[in-house]
Amino acid sequence: MQVAYGVLHLNYNGKEPLRSSFIGSWKHLRNLYLSVDRVDDELLPSISKLQNLQTLKLYRCPLLGFSSCSESFGDIGNMTSLRHIEIYDANNYLFPRFITKRQNLQTLKLRGCENGRLPQDIGNIRSLRHIDLSHSRLTGALPTSITKLENLHTLLLEGIKHLNSLSQISGKLTIRELDQVRDATDAKEANLKKKPYLRSLGLVWNCKPYSSREMKDNDAVTEAENVLERLQPHPNLKELNITGYGGMKFASWMIKSSLLPNLVRIDLWNCTRCESLEFSGPLPSLEYLSLCGLEALKSITSKLRKGDGFFPSLKELELTYMPNLESCSIVIDDDDAAQPQKALPSFPHLPEYWKIRHCPKLESIPWGMPVGEYVILEEGNSAKLLESILRATDDQISTMTSTNSSTSFCPKVRSLRLFGCQNLKAFPQDVTSMHPQAVMRYLTNLEELRIENCTEFTPLESIGGLISLKELVISNNAKTG
Q1: Is the pLDDT of residue 218 over 70?
Q2: CA 182 to CA 199: how far, in whole Å?
Q3: Residue 429: what pLDDT?
Q4: How many CB atoms sit inside 10 A of residue 467's CB?
Q5: Residues 6+ apart with CB under 8 A from 385
Q6: Distance of CA 456 to the CA centre of its chain
Q7: 3-state SS class at 99
Q8: Predicted TM-score of the model (pTM)
Q9: What distances in angstroms separate CA 37 from CA 40, 62, 162, 449, one per listed residue?
């Protein structure tokens, strides 16, 4: 294989034998990606001569001598530029200790690798930021020295048996293939509740789609619920992502804001069996809430005590691909009332971004909350949603006017994007019957309006009052051409 002497990037994928001696001559090489069926014993010693190499990726390579190549790896001191090592589909690997001397190494990825081990002194790589063990199965426990990695941002691994001893782990932890955990006791032994430095937690199952026959597998549902219940994190946690969860209800520690008072972000994705979701308390620190692919979800309920502000820090709300979602309501628990009352709470902070996509049964704005500056409605019941947005603002302004509130309430929707809303014919005709300030403070601040693939929309008589409009995009609407 002929390669120019000054080449910087090489991606070689072939079945022909690769003469490793060639590699050592490419002194300027920065990135090396190899996927070959056969290599010789000189592969790694040749790679060690590449003193400018920054990224090394080996795909399905038979790593000859890799488990005992510490002595044969050549002059490892030359590889001071190495930043990223990625190895895919290798078996019985044992990293040589040279890796622990690479003080500039930032990323170590081992994907699809079986029966491997990390070096015990991996904690010496103080610059290491990301360890990805996705779809890999380790032999033995994770080295305890991994807790010394002060700059570690991400740790991705399969299963939970390696976590018990890592009480000092920090940064981001993602645990995959939790559907393979059959005993809830194993989940409890992960001891996430005793990991105070963990900032972000991802829990990943491989739940079947909503229409699958396995939806009726009660044993699998119970197992998933028991495992999640015992994976309660420390109250210091700031970000929580749950993907592919197969239970019909979420864990009790998730819905009580007092147990996770510092949560800034919640992402619940493809939890297809859950039919209801309940939050208890105001979630005072929450800034981002994303619910996507909860196909069986019918209702979201938030329980507050009288006087609590609702999501006081929320900046962004996203509701996506939830075909059965019908309502998002708030219940006020008033000690003076005989029963909890549905009511409109105070909104100390309005989210800047609203994204509601593919929620066809949702006809009213979630929680009656006035929206912020950027609104996206896509393939839903947008005619009623749009009217609900305006009415929520009208109700809020009217309430403040009647109470002579001095609070500054001035929502300004600057961007409104409507995509694929087949039942949207025009802006609500009864807008003018609302409180006049609602119209002035909403529609007149609109700067961007995009209406695309809304086949019934007739805009010419509906948008004349948008005096601040700077960008108007109307396309693929049957009645406008």
Answers
A1: yes
A2: 27
A3: 54
A4: 10
A5: 356, 362, 363, 364, 365, 377
A6: 35
A7: helix
A8: 0.77
A9: 11, 7, 32, 55
Q: In one letter, which amino acid is 426?
A: A
End-to-end CA distance of the chain: 57
3-state secondary structure at position 412: coil
- Identify the H or E element spanning 115: strand 114-116
CB-based contact 118:140 (threshold 8 Å): no
Domain spans of the chain, in order of start: 370-400+410-481
**Mode of pairing for the β-strands spanning 9-14 and 31-36:** parallel
Of all helices (H) and strands (E), which one includes residue 228? Answer: helix 218-229
Work out the average pLDDT over 442-460: 77
Distance CA 318, CA 382 (A): 15
Give the integer Cα–Cα distance in Å for 150 and 126: 7
DSSP three-state, residue 353: strand
Tokens at residue 309, please?
A: 């502000």
Residue 24 buriedness (CB in 10 A; 0-12 / 13-18 / 19+): middle
Residue 164: its pLDDT value, please? Answer: 78
What counts of helices (H) and strands (E) characterise the chain?
Answer: 7, 24
Q: What angle do CA 108, 109, 114 make, to 5 degrees?
A: 125
